[in-house]
Amino acid sequence: MSRLAALAPACIMLAMTAVGCRRSKHPHIASYTPPSLPAGFVERTGTGWRIAVPSTWRETMQRGPVVWAVSDPQRVDDFRANVNVITESFADESYEYAKANEAALHREPRATVEATREEVVDGDPTLVIESHWTPAPPSTIAFRTMQSALASHGAGYVVTCSVASSAFERYRSTCESIVRSFAVER
Questions:
Q1: Strand ranges across the sheet with 49-54
Q2: Cα(39)–Cα(34) distance, integer angstroms
Q3: Is the omega angle on the peptide bond into residue 137 within 30 degrees of 0, that is, cis?
Q4: Burial class of 35 by CB neighbour count within 10 A (0 to 12, 13 to 18, 19+)
Q5: pTM for the full model?
Q6: Is the dihedral of CA 89, 147, 138, 109 positive or negative?
Q7: Hey, which bits of 122-182 come out as E strands?
Q8: CA gap 186, 23 in Å, rounded
Q9: Could you tell me which residues come within 8 angstroms of residue 41 by beta carbon, excluding any fewer than 6 positions away?
Q10: 152 closest CA partner among 110, 180, 112, 185
C-alpha cells in the first residue's frame, strides 16, 4: 500500500470531523495593523485590554460594571467628556457581542441609536455604535456616546466615549481615535 493510500483514511476522518466544527462567520483578521497613537495620546492598560486616550484626561472613580474610566478635565455644558471600559463574561465572537450590545441599546428607554456601522477594531469585525441619551434626573444634560465591543477568551469588553450632545462633533475625532485604539488580549 502506498504512503498516499495509507494517509487517505486519516484525511477523510479529519475532513469528517471538520464538518462538525463551528466555523467563524466573522473571523479575527491576523494581518490587522493597529493605528498609530495620535499626537497627545497615551496608552493605558487593564486586565485583558488596552486603549489610547488623551494624555490630559484623568482617571475617575468607577461605578457599577465599569472597570476603568477617564475624563476630560474641561467641562462642556457642565459635562465632562469621558471614556469607560466595561467587562463581562461572553463566550462568542466580537461581532455577536456588539450585536447583543446594540440590541440592548435599542431596549434602553433613554437611548436612541443614531448610527451603527461595521468596523474592524483590533482585527475583529465588530460594530461602532453612536447613541443619543436623554438626561437622567438630577442631570439636565443630554449626551452622545460612541462605543464598540470586543470579545476574547470568554470575556466581552465594551469601550464607550461619552460627550455632551452639544460638543459631540467637536470630540468626534477624539472618540474615533479612542474606540479604534481599543484592543484585547488574544
A1: 41-46, 49-54, 183-184
A2: 15
A3: no
A4: exposed
A5: 0.84
A6: negative
A7: 124-133, 143-152, 155-164
A8: 18
A9: 52, 53, 54, 55, 177, 181
A10: 185
| Half-sphere exposure in the Cβ direction for 57 (13 Å, CA) | 25
Reading the block at residue 61, the C-alpha cell is 472613580
Listed residue (76, 44, 69, 72) closest to 56, CA to CA: 72
Pairing of β 183-184 and β 124-133: unpaired
- ∠ CA 149-100-103, nearest 5°, is 115
Please, what's the largest Cα pairwise distance for the chain? 82
All structural domains of the chain: 26-184 (3.40.1000.10)
155: pLDDT strictly greater than 90: yes
Q: Write the pLDDT tens digit of every residue in 85-141.
A: 999 999 999 999 999 999 999 999 999 999 999 999 999 999 999 999 999 888 899
Give the position of cell 469588553: 157
Residue 63, C-alpha cell as written in the block:
461605578
User: How far is the C-alpha of 72 from the C-alpha of 76, rounded, in Å?
Assistant: 10
Tracing cell 490630559 back to the chain, one arrives at 56
* Assigned C-alpha cell, 90: 461572553
Calculate the CA 168 to chain-centre distance.
19
Number of continuous H segments (helices) and E segments (strands) in the chain? 3, 10
User: How many CB atoms sit inside 10 A of residue 175's CB?
Assistant: 23
